[in-house]
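The instructor's notes for this session suggest beginning with a concrete chain rather than abstract definitions. Hand out the sequence below and ask the class to guess, before any prediction is shown, which regions might be ordered.
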Amino acid sequence: MTKQKTACAIMFAMEKVGRRWALLVLRELLDGPQRFSKLNKSIPWVSGRSLTRVLKKLEFDGLILRKVDGGRPPKVSYSLSGDDPMLRDIIDAMFRWGTKEYLKQGGRRRSGDT
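After discussion, reveal the predicted structure:
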């Protein structure tokens, strides 16, 4: 594969899952459908407004599904749009790599990171 094709494929993937919080949302949905409130509690660093934006973008990109159950009030749940084992592999590999690098730094984030 040429460097240009590789760069294009990586850029495409990053456009889909590289935005802030997207991978954490996808990680949570690997375990099955989740309601907004549960997602918001499981990712405490993200504001409700930011979570809403990420969910809308992931839904627009076709990575997740939004299901509205009738009733008062309506219950909305989110799930992955497909069962792609590669997504789980990617998230697991990033977790392993991140853990290794985090521990190399003595279990603390670099200064200047937010």
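Then share the key points. The radius of gyration is 16 Å. The CA atoms of residues 102 and 108 lie 6 Å apart.
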